[in-house]
Amino acid sequence: MSKNAWEALESSLPEGWQDAKLLGRIDTGEGPTPVLIDTGIVFDMSRVAPTVSMLVADRAFDSAAGQSLGPLAELGLSAAPDGSHRILSPIDLQCVKAAGVTFAISAIERVIEERARGDAGGAAAVRERLEARIGGSIRSVVPGSQEAADLKAALIEDGMWSQYLEVAIGPDAEVFSKSPALATVGWGADIGIRSDSTWNNPEPEVALLADAQGEPVGATLGNDVNLRDFEGRSALLLSKAKDNNASASLGPFIRLFDDNFTLDDVRACDVTLRIEGEDGYVLDGVSSMREISRDPAVLLRQTMSEHHYPDGFILFLGTLFAPIQDRDQPGAGFTHKVGDSVTIASPKLGKLVNRVVTCKQAAPWTMGIGALMHNLAARGLLAK
């Protein structure tokens, strides 16, 4: 690995990564390969289980059963598509789910999108009215409580109720499908926004990896790329706002839960965001998981509901952050431009770095489940 490539990756690893156990995928040139990073050594786990979902199902996290590929610092990992060891999204066959409006205060921004009909220029006046009415009270209510029901009644009477407020403070969380299995992109990859979107933003989040029973096994960072203009015109356009080529990134690795990293660390972490544009624009933000309205364990239970995910799932937990800092003209707010560099970071999870392009420009998603099965079979990994 070149010095610059290693420095880029090393700066994106979790603090204390040498003592953590990290789960991920790389492409060694033969195809997607599940790996464990244990005490700084990379282990090929494909002969133990050919997919990450199978490793999780079997709790096959004993690196000694895998094949050592050597120290991470010497392996040559990069995001380059022509690299000898390319970093991929750390998940494969898991369903990709996302929870929305999990920070009650962020509901204000969703209501703004709805009331402004997706027009960024009309958002400022709506924001001022809503914050004056519910900015303080919405922070203090527990979703599904009697206080939440009383606030709902008052807002209905004022003609200010919204479907977004329903999922913010009502009994049921918003949980939706973000992406097909295998369609997420990883650290260093391009992320995509639709070329016909004029108001969009990143969503820096923590994502929990869960097994088929909904039990969390680890966490990573995610970018739930969002088209505010599409969703603002109609909530029924959510799938077009959320599910697009290269519109969901995860990584760099799943940090597995152990004695040194637990769900309580997720509950207490801060997630920072930095956007650097080729035009010199810089935006910084932070989302504190301490302010989440619904506990991560509750969101996992609501995601499971009465359903079964035989290959497990990953769940984006939502974000407090919705950028409103003007970029080009006063009152127009923020939207992405091609070439933006997006860095999402949290000390115990590392850094997820991606570059913004249009969905048309992003590498096409070609390896679906069928192609993966053909690849694994050709490598003799499905023999058993």
TrEMBL record:
One of its GO terms (biological process) is small molecule metabolic process. Gene3D superfamilies: Fumarylacetoacetase-like, C-terminal domain. It comes from the Bacteria. Residues 218-357 form the Fumarylacetoacetase-like C-terminal domain. Keywords: Hydrolase, Metal-binding. One of its GO terms (molecular function) is metal ion binding. Transmembrane segments: none annotated. The keyword Metal-binding applies. Belongs to the FAH family. This is Fumarylacetoacetate (FAA) hydrolase family protein.
